Amino acid sequence: MKSIRPCLGQRHVQVLLLFLSIVVNYVAKLNVGVAVVAMTNAESTNPDFKEYDWNEKQKSYILSSFFWGYFITQFPGGYLCRRFGAKTTMFYSTLGSAVLAFVPPLCVSWGGWQVYCVIRAVQGLFQGPIFPCLHAHLAAWCPVNERNRLGALANTGIECGTVSAMFLSGIIAASDLGWPGIFYISGGIGVVFCVAWILFAANSPTESKLISQEELVYIETSKNAIKAANDSESEVKIPVPWKAIMSSLPFWALVVARSAQSWGFSTLQAEIPSYMNGVLHMNMKSNALFSALPYLAMWCMSYIYLITSDILLNKKVLSLTAIRKTFNSLAFLVPAAALIGIGFLDEDQKTLAIVLMTANVGINAGSTIGSALNTIDLSPNHAGVLMGVVNTAANVVPILTPLLVGFIVQNEHDRTQWQIVFIISAVVFTVGDLFYVIFGRMKLQPWDDPDFLKAKETHNEENTKNSTENTKL
Questions:
Q1: Residue 260 contacts residue 332 (beta carbons within 8 Å)
Q2: What is the C-alpha to C-alpha distance for residues 63 and 79, in angstroms, rounded to an integer?
Q3: Residue 302 in contact with residue 152, Cβ under 8 Å?
Q4: Cα separation of 410 and 342, whole Å?
Q5: Taking Cα atoms as reference points, which of 260, 437, 259, 264 lies closest to residue 360?
Q6: What's the CA gap between 122 and 107, in Å, rounded?
Q7: Distance from C-alpha of 268 to C-alpha of 297, rounded to nearest angstrom
Q8: pLDDT tens digits, 339-360
């Protein structure tokens, strides 16, 4: 029976839900960059709310603390997706994060920066499973010929969430709601999303009550479609070939690439508001606009990369391997050069600094197609687990970068200290991309086969038997 490809269907609804899940979680995750500036410099926002006298080291602990919990639950997140399904895991992860988003205004007044760190760390624990859920859900819903497009569309929630966190947080802090409004609104949109998710999400096409028969057949019969699509329980029963994964060079190339991306990107995400306030001397209202501008460019560029990759793939101008490695190199090497340039600019060149930061972050959007979706290339059956391991490694980095900034930048107004931070990030970008280009692969790995371990055991038994027979002879 020939499958019909529906133009729109439930797979697109699932991708929209994944997009929104990233947006609401990123708003809760990244509002801290603006919130910390507002909470320590009330005059630049709304002076009617309490101001805290936190030094740069204390602020660096706050910026880092989310990732203390976040990296811990990345790997368990992959297991939870396999055990309970992406729908349940995503729901509780997002709901827990949303509830905790309400807490800081109620607790910081008596617990100070220390209790804020604890809240952020626990919030990170809840958000850890988000991306393993994302990749497991994409693997279950995306036909192989649409993985690149649908996966990239879902991941544009990163840019949208970042823009929203940077821009809206600054606007809210300067409004009558003050900096507490940042937390209340972040929590509110998270709760609203959870209601939509529980109503419309489904772990697989076969579980969806809204999917059409045509779309169901199309997804299930797609070449190399997710094997678990025929039976939502089958993926749970597939053992994870840990030894094969951990000895796989393409897998480690992905780990290195995502860790390098995390280093450069987390430095900019967490530190742009402080850099603009300290070096470029911008007030919070203009800071909010210009802090968000690079991520608005990134959001727009993500669609340009997506359309370009679709055209190149459909016209067979470049292979998937060539597209991933080319886009990843653009996303890493151009920002690396721009970062070094930014480090040599000061207040008198703020326009050029903003242009470079905007171009830097915008071009970095190519890393989504370049490497973020590589887990599904390597192993659809273990995509959630792979993402859990990759994100565990990658999210150790954002723990370190704010602490490094806190150590190097003793005076936030000193341009030369920020220069060191940006040069280090540029070097990490370059080395990470080089390793990925040399060793990265975009092909299904042998250990994705559900029978991989069984076949290996049979092979080992045959070798043992032959060895014994030869010894007897």
A1: yes
A2: 28
A3: yes
A4: 19
A5: 264
A6: 14
A7: 14
A8: 888 777 777 777 887 788 788 8
